[in-house]
Specification:
The strands form two sheets. The chain has a six-stranded mixed sheet with strand order 6-7-8-3-9-10, with helices on both faces. A four-stranded antiparallel sheet has the order 2-1-4-5. It has two domains: 3-179 and 240-322, ABC transporter transmembrane region fold (Up-down Bundle); 349-580, P-loop containing nucleotide triphosphate hydrolases (Rossmann fold), CATH 3.40.50. The protein has 19 helices and ten strands. The chain is elongated and about 115 Å long. The chain is of the alpha/beta class and 590 residues long. Helix 2 (15-46) runs antiparallel to helix 9, helix 3 (56-102) runs antiparallel to helix 4 (113-154) and helix 6 (191-203) runs antiparallel to helix 8 (214-265). The structure holds adenosine-5'-triphosphate (ATP). Adenosine-5'-triphosphate (ATP) binds next to helix 10. Its main location: membrane. The chain crosses the membrane at residues 21-43, 55-77, 134-154, 160-178, 241-262. InterPro entries: AAA+_ATPase, ABC1_TM_dom, ABC1_TM_sf, ABC_transporter-like_ATP-bd, P-loop_NTPase, Type_1_exporter.
């Protein structure tokens, strides 16, 4: 989509507000013409160039009416303009959010959250502001043409003599500025890189500290800041150049006018009123030229903003971003539709066939995975670090987009696993779960009613912790759950999974956060849940002992699968893993 198409579509989004804004701004923008004409009448009358009798009070009354119309125009037009501005921002952000949330969870945004937030906030603001400027540009152009017509009607040569040099110098400055600013700004003045970097640093303060990498972080920060400083300075110099040049051009124009006017005043072709009108309008016309310069520059930059948002959309069509949809600006948004549960409670079997995924630009991932999980079974995935366990879980759940193969639920191929594998069909606890700044209860429920909360807390082996916390489940957990231990975060996430009452529970490795005994109690309670079907990554003996089926991963492929006994006899990789984990697994030795 190019700039013209974007602006056109946005103007058509809410044509009522767009045109209303233009009409409401007209009195404000045409006021200088009215005031200039009144001034002309006034001065002509003073100097005896007017045939009319004393019009002073009449002129004063009209000037007051003009000022009142101006105030009214500002009052109503600002409201309309703000309403349109918020609607456009709302529409673009709603569409962006929809797109991001519809992406496979693990690849929802292409870069760091800091970069994405900066685009979501700043670029969308800029795009919406451009529509506002286009709106104003239309009105101000009406003013300019009206003023020009008035001046031409009074004296064509003087008007040409004043306006042409102004336009010529402006055109020269403007082409240079547009060229410079468009060339300088494709990356948003380095702001995106800087916020992306800062966001990564804030998220990994611990990693920086333990690696003793403070100095190199500061070095990188100062390099990025320096780049930004240079870009911003160049940019500012060019735009300020125009602001500095234009007022001077007006002065020059007034000088020319003075010279030309003085010669004409005598013969009576150019009255004092005409002179006052010229000087007055010239000032406002120069402001229009200055404004249009800034607006044109901003319009040229739309291309860059669209390009950056295209990056955030990960190549998906930009049309999606401006898809017209109703917005709930005045009321609360409608409640989210409940998940489709018609097929729930009928789970029989989950299968994958030749499921494959590679991380972009690498040969790493999972290849040709065939597995089957039946209702009520406890399936454990084991494998060395980097063997593909997490990738397998995420690809099954649609959090990563499969490159090949398929996932089947009750023998039906699932076209969009990301949308299908959600509660109450499946629930998932990742290896590093995320908590939000809120109470523990809010973090577990995430909007669900409290029914089943107590049981979920118990099943997650969290009841003792809750009892010891100051305010129990109403304790604030802090940003990303900083007030809880890693084990508590992990079990809170497990409780979040349990409370959703899903048929298949998918759990990534908890061993880094939980001691063996706690994890063992968790599996015990999980097994006691009625007809729980579990797919878990674990190396703990308790999990392996309970497993109905074990899948051994190696280099992204299934190396072997079977019961503990079968694998201990047939799989060298499994035996090696057992040796690494301490060898003996009580109660289930071959
Ligand atoms: N975001 C990523 N980009 C590129 N490669 C990745 C990414 N995440 C994982 N990998 C690679 O894909 C392979 C499988 O990783 P995965 O995390 O699935 O292994 P794992 O068995 O779960 O490891 P762990 O036991 O450490 O959790 C590894 O070689 C890993 O380096």
């Amino acid at each position: 989509m190019n700039t013209k198409q974007f602006l056109w579509r946005m103007a058509a989004y809410h044509p009522g507000l767009f045109w209303k804004g233009i009409f409401q701004w007209l009195p404000f923008n045409l006021a200088p013409v009215a005031a200039g004409l009144l001034m002309k009448v006034f001065f002509d009358q003073l100097t005896g160039h007017s045939a009319s009798s004393d019009v002073t009070w009449f002129v004063v009354a009209l000037l007051a009416a003009n000022a009142a119309a101006t105030l009214g125009s500002i009052r109503f037009a600002s409201r309309t303009e703000t309403a349109l501005n918020f609607r456009i921002k709302g529409l673009i952000r709603q569409n962006l959010l929809n797109h991001i949330l519809g992406q496979p969870g693990a690849r929802a945004i292409p870069g760091s959250p800091g970069e994405a937030v900066s685009q979501f906030r700043d670029d969308v603001d800029q795009l919406a502001d451009t529509i506002r400027n286009v709106n104003l540009l239309v009105v101000k152009t009406v003013f300019f043409l009206t003023a020009l017509a008035v001046l031409f009607a009074i004296n064509v040569p003087v008007t040409l003599g004043v306006i042409l040099p102004l336009l010529a110098v402006f055109a020269l400055v403007q082409t240079r500025i547009i060229r410079m600013s468009v060339r300088l700004r494709p990356k948003g003045n380095g702001r995106r890189e800087l916020s992306g970097f800062m966001s990564e640093v804030f998220q990994s303060v611990l990693a920086v500290k333990v690696a003793g990498a403070e100095d190199s972080v500061v070095e990188e920060f100062s390099r990025l800041s320096d780049d930004r400083r240079k870009q911003v300075s160049r940019d500012r110099v060019m735009s300020q150049l125009m602001y500095a040049l234009l007022p001077n051009l007006v002065q020059i124009g007034s000088g020319i006018l003075l010279l030309a006017g003085a010669r004409l005043l005598g013969p009576g072709k150019f009255t004092v009123g005409d002179y006052a009108l010229f000087v007055h309008l010239l000032l406002h016309m120069s402001k229009f030229i200055e404004y249009s310069g800034t607006s044109i520059t901003q319009i040229k930059q739309v291309k860059g903003y669209l390009r950056r948002l295209n990056w955030l959309l990960q190549g998906s069509s930009l049309d999606r971003m401006i898809d017209f949809k109703p917005l709930d600006l005045a009321e609360s948004p409608p409640a989210a539709p409940p998940p489709a549960v018609s097929e729930s409670r009928q789970f029989k079997q989950l299968q994958t066939k030749s499921l494959t995924y590679f991380y972009p630009g690498t040969a790493k991932g999972i290849k040709r995975i065939d597995l089957q999980i039946s209702r009520g079974s406890f399936v454990v995935i084991v494998g060395r670090v980097g063997s593909g366990k997490t990738t397998l879980l995420r690809t099954i759940l649609g959090l990563l987009p499969a490159a090949a193969g398929e996932v089947r639920w009750n023998n039906r191929r699932i076209a969009n696993p990301g949308e299908f594998f959600v509660p109450p069909r499946t629930a998932y606890t990742p290896q590093v779960p995320k908590l939000y700044n809120g109470t523990l209860k809010e973090n577990i429920l995430l909007g669900l009613p409290e029914e089943g909360l107590e049981q979920a807390v118990y099943d997650a082996v969290l009841e003792e912790d809750v009892r010891l916390l100051d305010k129990g489940l109403d304790t604030e957990v802090g940003v990303r759950g900083v007030k809880l231990s890693n084990g508590q975060i992990q079990r809170s996430a497990a409780a979040r999974m349990f409370v959703r009452g899903s048929e298949v529970l998918v759990v990534d490795d908890m061993s880094s956060a939980l001691d063996a005994e706690t994890e063992s109690r968790l599996w015990e309670r999980l097994n006691a849940r009625e007809e729980a079907t579990c797919l878990v990554v674990s190396h703990r003996r308790e999990a392996l002992r309970r497993a109905d089926h074990i899948i051994v991963m190696k280099d992204g492929e299934i190396e072997a699968q079977g019961t503990f006994r079968e694998l201990a006899l047939s799989s060298e990789e499994f035996r090696a893993l057992l040796d690494e984990a301490g060898g003996t697994l009580p109660g289930n030795r071959p």
